[in-house]
Design goal:
It contains 6 helices and 8 strands; from the N terminus they run E-H-H-E-H-E-E-E-E-H-H-E-E-H. With about 180 residues, it is of the alpha+beta class. About 20% of the residues are buried.
Length: about 180
C-alpha cells in the first residue's frame, strides 16, 4: 500500500523543515491505521494477516513495491517513484495467506527519462548522483546512480580517496532483486 503525503503542503516544503517531517509522519500513521484495519479484516475472514510499517515491519518494502507494480526505482537512492505520486509517498505492507492474484512490476519509462533529465545529478550537493546511464556494481544498479553511500559529503569523499580507500566493494542498500533496465 502507498499513502500520498499531500501535494499542497509538500509543494511548500523544502525537505528539511517541519512541514516535510509532519507530512511524512502523518502518512506513516495513516498507513498504520489503514494497514491495521485491512489486516484485522483478513484475520476476521479466517486468514493470517499482519501489517508491516517502516518502524516494526518484518519485510523489506522497496522490493515489494517494485514487484507489486507500485513504482520504479529512482536515481535518488532506494526511493520508489510512483507514476501518479512521484516520490511523494509513504508505504506499508500487509502480508497474508489469503490466495490473491498479484500485479507485475511496471515500466512507465522512468529509467529512460532519468538518463536524459539529470536534474538529480545537477542538484545533488555532494555529487553522489551521476548523470547518464546507471552505473553498475556486480550486475546490480549502484545506489544513487554513483559509487558513494547516500549523502556522503564531497569533502569526506575526497578525504577517503586521498587515504586510498577508493571505490566500495558493494553497497548493502542496493535494492534486492532489481536489475537496471529490467
Amino acid at each position: 500500500m502507498i499513502v500520498d503525503q499531500g501535494f499542497e503542503t509538500m509543494e511548500g516544503a523544502s525537505g528539511d523543515d517541519w512541514i516535510s517531517v509532519a507530512q511524512s509522519m502523518r502518512a506513516y500513521l495513516r498507513f498504520s491505521l489503514l494497514g491495521g484495519v485491512v489486516a484485522k479484516h483478513l484475520r476476521n475472514l479466517g486468514y493470517g494477516a499482519r501489517a508491516h510499517t517502516v518502524m516494526d515491519g518484518e519485510v523489506l518494502q522497496p522490493p515489494l513495491l517494485l514487484l507489486s507494480g507500485l513504482g520504479e526505482v529512482s536515481r535518488i537512492g532506494e526511493v520508489i517513484l510512483n507514476p501518479f505520486l512521484g516520490p511523494r509517498l509513504k508505504s506499508g505492507v500487509v502480508t497474508t495467506d489469503l490466495p490473491l492474484a498479484h500485479d507485475k512490476p511496471v515500466d512507465f519509462g522512468l529509467q529512460r527519462f532519468c538518463e536524459s533529465c539529470n536534474k538529480c545529478a545537477r542538484e545533488c550537493p555532494s555529487g553522489a548522483i551521476t548523470a547518464g546511464p546507471k552505473l553498475m556494481f556486480n550486475g546490480d544498479a549502484a545506489p544513487l546512480g554513483g559509487d558513494e553511500p547516500p549523502c556522503r559529503s564531497a569533502g569526506a569523499r575526497k578525504a577517503r580517496r586521498r587515504a586510498g580507500q577508493g571505490r566500495p566493494q558493494r553497497h548493502e542498500e542496493v535494492v534486492v532483486g532489481y536489475r537496471a533496465g529490467g
